Amino acid sequence: MEATNTTMKGWQQDNAGNSLADVHSSVHVPKNSGFFKTLMAYFGPGLMVAVGYMDPGNWATDIAGGARFGYRLLSVVLISNLFAILLQHLSLKLGIATGRDLAQACRDHYSRPVSIGLWLLAEIAIAATDLAEVIGSAIALNLLFGLPITVGILITALDVLLLLYLQNKGFQTIERIVASLIFLIIGCFGYELFVSHPAVAEVVGGLLPRTEIITNPGMLYIAIGILGATVMPHNLYLHSSIVQTRDFGRDDAGRKSAIKFATIDSTVSLFLAFFINAAILILSAATFHFSGNQHVADITDAHRLLDPILGVKLAGVLFAVALLASGQNSTLTGTLAGQIVMEGFLELRIKPWLRRLITRLVAIVPALIVAILYGERGTSELLVFSQVILSLQLSFAVVPLVTFTGDKLKMGRFVNPGWINVLSWAVAVIIIGLNGYLLWDTLF
């Protein structure tokens, strides 16, 4: 790993090795080419990160929010997305400027006990993410093929074989599959919005924040769930690593160019994720909230009522297809995040299929228990709860990220400007404050 002396002085220990060493600098970036051609070489990591912002956990919180509160929580989706754009910019900048992913940076900065604690919290976040993917995919299989939820949960264990096959085909193959599934989801929801006829003026009004979101406990719970489902901790680790798959120049000029193009990739991709999240909430509000079905709070109910309320037969099928695509997409990126976290914090390299199997088993066991004991309703509630867990873990990834990217010794010339530093800490404080309020309200 090439690094300037200024950057190295900021760390307690040298970087032990490249992040995702088998695909590090494996994607060619053309030299002295035009803007568009260079940008195309950087497109991919942003879409993989965006997947985490449209996984099945988002569906559960967006459906519940739209059905219960109409368009009023759209502002939370928008603000969460703006938070995500900023934090993912910091994440990619950390990876490009220092040659470290966020897990490696934590290991090289904090004491061993603190690093272990952060690793455990990151693993909890990844397990919660995987739990959402397991439940979401199982529900989609149930809706499309009538498979029992418990059977669908067990089938999700087989995706290890799919991942093994794809990882042997190269990193850009995974990126292309992810992109294809994203555009499939966009197509499905484009149709859903067309047939649901949402009230445009009320949708625009819903993008404006209101104090009611903070003062209404039920609304706040869903809002924090949306925040947890949108700004996901594992994505901060993921992005700081996969931007390093590009073969950019490891000097200041090369890093500056890489940060610019990677930021464009990330921002455009996250606006696609915003469209999908907003579309789910708008669809839920237009279809359920204003038709007297405010009780709809889970994916299964939403699917069951879409066709009769909208009066079209394709709505429910496309909804389930998009859900399955969402679950499979999230599975691909969740695997990489788990590998990055384990290797970065512990310098422990195990075979990807074994890492994937361990993570999936951790998710399958609680999902199976809840499905057997409480049925579909229980798994849907577990899905929403998993997103609140993610939100509670988020601070422990955000604070180190903001700290590192604001440290001139670590970042050199790529340190955050003053205004970005202030904005980043404001976002971190808001996240910590909302989570603290949720804990207090839940416990007391």
TrEMBL record:
Gene: mntH
Species: Spirosoma aureum
PANTHER family reported in the protein's UniProt record: NATURAL RESISTANCE-ASSOCIATED MACROPHAGE PROTEIN 2, SOLUTE CARRIER PROTEIN FAMILY 11 MEMBER
Keywords for the protein's UniProt record, in alphabetical order: Cell membrane, Ion transport, Membrane, Symport, Transmembrane, Transmembrane helix, Transport
Main subcellular location of this protein, as a coarse class: membrane
Topological category with respect to the lipid bilayer: Multi-pass membrane protein
A single MF term (Gene Ontology): manganese ion transmembrane transporter activity
A Gene Ontology biological process term: iron ion transmembrane transport
InterPro entries tied to this protein: NRAMP_fam (IPR001046)
Keyword Secreted: no
Family: Belongs to the NRAMP family.
Protein name in the entry: Divalent metal cation transporter MntH
